[in-house]
Amino acid sequence: MSKRSILAVPAGLGLLFAGSAPALAQTAAPTLNSGDTAWMLISSVIVLMMTVPGLALYYGGLLRRKNILAMLMQCFFATGLISVLWCVIGYSLAFTAGSGPLAPFVGGFSRFMLNGTGLNGLSGTIPETVFAMFQCTFAIITPVLILGGPADRLKFSSAMVFLGIWLIAVYCPVAHMVWGPGGFLMNAGVLDFAGGTVVHINSAVAGLVAAVMVGKRAGYGRDNMAPADLGYTFLGGALLWVGWFGFNAGSALTAGGQAGMAMINTHLATSAAVVSWTLVEWLTKGKPSLLGAVSGAVAGLVAITPACGFVGVPGALVIGLCAGAVCYWGVTGFKSMFNYDDALDVWGVHGMGGILGAMLTGVFALNEVGGHSGALEGNVHQLLLQAEGVVVTILYSGIASFIILKLIDITMGLRVSKEDESQGLDITQHGEVLQHLG
Q: pTM for this one?
């Protein structure tokens, strides 16, 4: 059995490449499938829902009352900003064939302003415009996840400049390396069905770097920084759980068996992580909390993302159970060990959950699930490939994010003033006050 057999035809998001004429020429001419198209339209809508309002509410409820509106504004404005940048240049850089020595690392400009997609343009069995829109929703939520790290003290203007530059300079190259035509990590054999590296590790590293560079919140470790409204967080978490079916099952890009497997795996892993996080918290703290249960759900969703279209049900169950326990330790023990202020635990949940999921994909991946007949694919060689994907993503995102943040800090400044931070970002950054919750 070839160690690369599961990727003979790249699964999930790697199936369809805009501007990859040589690859398409080797296969039958694509024809539009209305069922696939309908499913991908629905998937695009519910993945967008994950950011607005899902992630916005999830993050907003975790903050102090004086900063809730600021987080909602950051998420909402970033959705618009990133969408514009994606359609102008981001999609082309991520999903077209590049040229020269940089081709394995970034795409070209053939889809600038979505040129060439057209009314009748196809990407596999769906319109290329639908594929571009689906990918747009991924491009939106990934940078927005970063905002949880430096929350409560990052200037709005600096945050938006950072997210815009980061999308082009970090997200697009990583997406190309993992999913794009001729991508470096995809060609190496790294498995990532729906974004464990591209979305979660990538954003978590940037969020951690941003949190450390901006510095700890005033009063961190001394003042009460309990979430203002866990009702917001619960609602946001529930929307994330539902929307994630579009995120993971939609990544099959067809309304077929692999989408069904990704869906059941996603739900099972999430459910298992809710149980494991809650039980660990119950045993260690004496009481199970709603915050813990919702956090466990997100941890399970994150961990199963790279594996959902490659593993069977037993693998999904193990990944979910491990995710709840590991990410609980990530936001408690690991965070305390290194004493950093990642306000909304982007690294503890998305970073550690993403790494766990990426590595366990190498353990539990099955050829038969990935679209090929054969025995268990998970082996030492695949584990090494998965580790390669993790390390490359961490190093590139970490170094590039540091450089971008440093330049912004020098030119614009990253952090609000002490007075503004004390008053809250709602009033000082946006001139608005949340009158009541609920």
A: 0.92
